[in-house]
Amino acid sequence: GESVGLHLPTLSVQEGDNSIINCAYSNSASDYFIWYKQESGKGPQFIIDIRSNMDKRQGQRVTVLLNKTVKHLSLQIAATQPGDSAVYFCAELSGGSNYKLTFGKGTLLTVNP
Amino acid sequence: NAGVMQNPRHLVRRRGQEARLRCSPMKGHSHVYWYRQLPEEGLKFMVYLQKENIIDESGMPKERFSAEFPKEGPSILRIQQVVRGDSAAYFCASSLTGTHNEQFFGPGTRLTVL
Fold first, then answer.
1. Are A99 and B104 in contact (CB < 8 Å)?
2. CB-CB: which of B99, B103, B106 is closest to A101?
3. Mutating which of A3, A30, A99, A102 best tests the B interface, going by the most B Cβ atoms within 10 A?
4. A18 touches chain B (CB under 8 A)
5. Do A43 and B44 make contact, defined as CB atoms within 8 angstroms?
6. What are the chain A neighbours of B95 within 8 Å (beta carbons)?
7. In the predicted model, is pLDDT for residue A8 greater than 70?
8. How far apart are CA B78 and CA B64, in angstroms?
9. SS (H, E, C) chain B
10. Alpha-carbon gap: A38 to the closest alpha carbon of chain B (Å)
11. Pick from A36, B9, B15, B86: CA 20 to 30 A from residue B78's CA?
12. How far is A94 from chain B (nearest CA, A)?
């Protein structure tokens, strides 16, 4: 089965609100996680990553939180904009590999103007 | 600075035909990865190649699928005798190194098998 999965398949927010997308993983040995954004008809685009020795990492308008105790990952998007509408995937490096990404099923984020 | 390029973007094949998908990595990248994405699913790793070498093909189906990354030219994912279940989006990614390095994805090839 999937070692990376998402709690909610869809999320709808109002423009300007903050968005939180969640992800659960089952492999406690995973040490590197990535969030990707995939717009319709395009390939995944790297957003932010985090290593297991960190709890939090911030980028421009995005923050990733890692809770290793409950094996949970979240992506927070501040002041969500219509251009943020996309499917968001969390991915992990799996099976002791340092290149083989395992993706969850994705969350569709819709931003309403 | 061109990103990862894939062609064709859309490919339609009838059952039993062959599909050839091409991927040109980013300039300077010698590590290429192929992933498959079924509708409403996440991407699934298929194969990892470096120039003239297959490093890891653990995600490739045992039959009908093959991949190569020649010394010159793009990486090729080849699917022989396609079946309807092969219909999917196939994404190629490239990286500068093969270790914990950001993988840049191409736009994908959407294969439809009639």
1. no
2. B103
3. A99
4. no
5. no
6. 99
7. no
8. 8
9. CCCCEEECCEEEECCCCCEEEEEECCCCCCEEEEEEECCCCCEEEEEEEECCEEEECCCCCCCCEEEECCCCCCEEEEECCCCHHHCEEEEEEEECCCCCCCCEECCCEEEEEC
10. 10
11. A36
12. 11
Categorize the per-residue pLDDT at B1 as very low, low, confident or very high, splitting at 50, 70 and 90. Answer: low
Looking at residue B101, its pLDDT comes to: 65
B26-58 per-position pLDDT tens digit: 999 999 999 999 887 889 999 999 999 999 999
Whole-number pLDDT of residue A77 = 97
- Which residue carries 């194969």 as its tokens? B47
Output Rg (C-alpha) for chain A, integer angstroms.
13
Q: Do A44 and B105 touch (CB under 8 A)?
A: yes
Q: Could you tell me which of B4, B46, B111 has the C-alpha nearest to residue A45?
A: B4
Q: Is the pLDDT of residue A19 over 90?
A: yes
Q: How many residues would you count in chain A?
A: 113
CB B106 within 8 A of CB B23: yes
| Mean pLDDT along residues A3-20 | 79
Average pLDDT, integer, range B68-82? 96
Three-state secondary structure call for residue A83: helix
Closest of A73, A5, A98, A20 to residue B33, by C-alpha: A98
CA–CA distance, A64 with A88 (Å, rounded to integer):
13
Question: For residue B57, which residues of chain A lie inside 8 Å, CB to CB?
Answer: none
Q: What is the mean pLDDT of residues A62-69?
A: 95
Instruction: Using pLDDT thresholds of 50, 70 and 90, give the confidence band for residue A6.
Output: very low
